[in-house]
Amino acid sequence: MKTYTDIPIDPWYQQTLHTLAFVSDAPKFFDRQMKKHGKTYRCKILGKEYVRAHGPDIAQLIFKNSSDSVQTGLGWQPVLDSFFPNGLLLKDGKNHITHRRIMQHGFNKPAMLNYFKQIQRWADDFTADIASGREIDFFPYIKEQTLDLALKMFLGLDYKAEFGQKIATAFSDTVAGTLGLVRVPLLNTKYHRGIKGRQTLVEAFTTLVQQRRLEPNDDLVSYMISARDEDGSEFSDQQIVDHLIFTMMAAHDTTASSITSLIYQVTKAPHWQKVLQEDADSLKEFSYDSLSMLEQTEHIFKETLRINPPLVSIPRYLSKDVELSGYAIPAGTRTGVNIFQTHRDQEYWSNPEQFDPDRFDRKEDKKHPYQFIPFGGGVHKCIGMHLSMMEAKILLRSIFQKLSVERTEPELDIAVATAPIWHPKVPMKVRFVPR
Ligand code: HEM
């Protein structure tokens, strides 16, 4: 078997540009590396060396290995730890299982039924607001809206009435901090603003948790306060605050990214808007149980997640020796799952660059259990997967029942960025008009 040093890597002077290339366009960077070195290669990002390998088999191997050998927390640590310490993704093994089980109470059926009603109200307000026909720069707009929803569902707060911009700015600074190239809190760096953003969130959320202990509500904070594990364990205030900050971040940015990407696709190929409209019209009564009938909407949303997964790549740390693509990889190596390239693997997807929701009708996604992985896999698979599907269906039904959408600029192929999540690099201006 080949050894670690047999894995190809650029010369040192090119490695110095890897982080910049990754941050500005991760898929392009990985593509270039693959063309140059083949499916397995090494690269250096944020000062750490990574072994990259691609495809559903690799994803399966990484996701299915126990946390004794493949660690998620240590994988994410260089990026997330200063800003989102103790979030679920930063935990492994028994500690992760205990915390995830307690958190799961916030995503069970009674909680989802409650979120359903809140999302429906939010979606109807959203539709009423965009129906004015004014020009909207969609990504910043929906980010604000999904943050508004997250504040309602998770914290029971009214975004516009209470913390408002302060929390929104603190969030975006904290998320942007994860990508700061300077990793010490020097004044006026992204890193420094990120650390300050986190402090603001900790202070605001700690007060809130204390209030909810006295006066429970039907939000995620209250579910987390009352939830107990089988052995009776419960979360402390600090643990709830850490989980909330992480979950809010995981929830609102990913949802904003995926809906923006869907609008991007259906304004380029308006035929799919008709399909969304027909699907919306086909439901006479709308309830939590009838969501599964919005099958075409689900396929369009899934195809959006395939072609532009919000997270293009997720990191892992090998804590034991592992064999990967015929190489003996020693413990201590950093690696990851490349979602973007896996979703474009021609062995599994026909015409992968084309937006074609019908591939889910044809069950093209069923050839390999790890070929479609926008929500990850294994024990860390996204806890909000069903919630985000529900959010998307409710919002899309509400919008396309009444409206169509068009771009207001002639150029439909706009520049996009993929870090920290997929989003347009330039304004994506749209207008919603009555059908
Ligand atoms: C389209 C929307 C979303 C996408 C594409 C997405 C994607 C992902 C991915 C890929 C992971 C796994 C990361 C890894 O294994 O390294 C993950 C984990 C997670 N997601 Fe999501 N997510 C979405 C929405 C949400 C929502 C709405 C919530 C919260 C309500 C959420 C909360 C979380 C949490 C807490 C984890 C960590 C789970 C764990 O470590 O056990 N996500 N998500």
Automatic annotation (TrEMBL):
What keywords are annotated for this sequence in UniProt?
A: Heme, Iron, Metal-binding, Monooxygenase, Oxidoreductase
Is-annotated flag, keyword Repressor? no
Q: Name one Pfam family in it.
A: p450
CC cofactor? heme
What PROSITE patterns would the database entry show? Answer: CYTOCHROME_P450 (PS00086)
**Which superkingdom heads the taxonomic lineage of this protein's source?**
Bacteria
Give the record's family classification. Belongs to the cytochrome P450 family.
Q: What is the name attached to this protein's record?
A: Cytochrome P450
Task: Supply the source organism for this entry.
Answer: Reinekea marina
